[in-house]
Amino acid sequence: MPSPRTVTPGLEPGGSKHPAEPQTPTQGRLSDHTDDSMKLGLGTLRQAFLRRSLRAGTLPTKEDAGRPRRSSLFRSLRYTQEERSATRRALVAGTPEEPSRAPPDARQQASTGVGLEEPGSQTEDKSVADLITQRELRAAFEQLQRLEKQLEHEKTLGSFGQDPTAYARRAMDLCLHYDGLAAEMSSIVKDTLGPEGVDAATLGELAHVVCAEEQAHPEPPPDGNFLLTPRHWRSHWEDAVQRSVRERVQAAGVGATSGLAQLLADLGNLVRQDLHKVRLEVQPAYAAAGLPAWETYLRAFHGAVAQRLQELAGHARGGEQLYLVLDWAANVYGSPNFLETPDLALPTEPLPPLLEPQVWAELESDYTNFLENKITSCFDRILELEQSQWTPTGAPEVLQGLYHTQLSIDVHMLVAERVKANSAISPQLEATTLQICARALGCFLRRFEKAFLESPAMREPHLGAYINACVEISANLLAKFPGALEELRQPLEAITCNLQEHLTQVFQQDVQLLFKAVCTKDWLTQDTLQPLMDRVVAFAGHLEHVVPPQSQEVLQDIHRLVVREYLAQVLRPRERFRGGERVSASQKMSLDAQAISDTFRGLGSQAAWLDQAIPCVAEIMGETYKDDIQRHLDTLIQSYPDIRRDHVLAILALRRLGSRRNHSLLQHAQSLLRAAAQVPPRRTLFDQIEVPTSVDVLITCL
Q1: Is the pLDDT score of 158 beyond 70?
Q2: Angle, vertex CA 324, rays to CA 319 and CA 330, nearest 5
């Protein structure tokens, strides 16, 4: 770079000492108001200069706007070596140069502000315009500074007393060259991130010129001199960076035919590549002058991306596109690994949110509406898939020893995937998604239960499979989202219990006719219980494929059902046994009770409390010592406090003990029943056994 000049060259020889020229009326008025004309505003001077330039045909055309040109104004700054030397000699001697020695257009050239150079300088034969167009920014700025100081020196010497507009013209010419330099800096900023880029030396000169201008014009001058007013090139540079970045961001993905996903991917790649270049190439070039390139570009990209994303959000249609925008903002751009460099990440502060809160809320609201419909339709599809498996001959597969259906996996995947995807966007959207899933799943469970119980597939295997599925949903899904899906616990437990009851009812319907043989003449001599026990064992084979503890609960229900239905046949017998037949019937009942107990114990039933019911009734029926009947009756009432007066009457009717003893036993039983009624029974057996109302009349008549 050329060193600062030691001699200040003059721009306009002579100044006020030129011979007076003939004045027009306008010129006369300017001479009379020298002080006022020196205080002309920048806008007025620019307009006057632009009118003058238009008349001279020196302004750029519309087609040339936005790119540096070597206009006639720039060319007017050129002097021949002879003119420079003559002007320099005139300034050093302190005398004006004679008008006759100047070339014919010397006065016109002097009025436009000539850039002078020391002999032997690297820019000896280059004008300011050449330096600007060749992007020798530092040399161009230094020349402009020397010309500015020279012009101010001449003004101080009073060289413009007779022609006050000469200062304005020359100052305006310098301002236009300053503007040309600023325009070239904008062009450099635009090319910085382009395909060819800008070399580090040019970027360094740009940064140096920005800082040098701040030092040269630190604050507005007191007299309002527009030439010395700060040009705010730092703000100009920042604006140029923002424009350049905005253009690049707006152009990313334009013309892409792959849709919004590809456009966002292209946008992310552009931002990532450009910021890498800024950090590795641009920032070091600006660092020496102290321009914060990284922070400026980062803010510019953030603002441009926010504007582009908000535009895309306004045109997003459908849940998929809404989610793409939300996900890109939260998980792609918002990721600490967005720049794919360990030591480089987008800071969260002090950058504003990528999307304004109102825009974000609208996006979430629109996406939530879509999500609710989407989840509901997914549950509809799950129901359709399950219904396709409901055939009378079809059976679920056995997986790891248990009846298996895809229902629990489908439900779990649907809820978990939706919640996981939306939790990455925002905690609010995660909570909303859980609420939507809870409502949709609750509605689905009711519809599913109704459809299944009305289908021909309601048999042991499918019932066992769906009991397993409900248990898995409750255990896994509710545990995965504790508290959030708690409202589903009760519906899941209710449908599980309902399925267990229907499983028991299927068994009951299958064996109901087998109980008809109990307490008949053939029953005394034949093994009518074995077919029933065979059905129990076969049914227990299905329970082996049901998850515990539900399998144990169903087994105990079956155990209780067998005992209850057996006693129901005993308490309303088709035939009455007397004498030896009653004793034989009592013994037969004891044998059946033992067989029932052994069978269920062998199957793993833990309902041992049922084992005393049939033996107690058998002992009352066959007891030969009547005084012990009360003891057996006490044991029965204490073991099964849900027994009622009708049941006691039916049991006593099996013996025909006589009216007095029956009344005595009945009164004693009623006192025990009143005491037992104060404590609700934990388990029930007799409450579902219906006995004929005529028994009471029968006992009374005896």
Answers
A1: yes
A2: 120
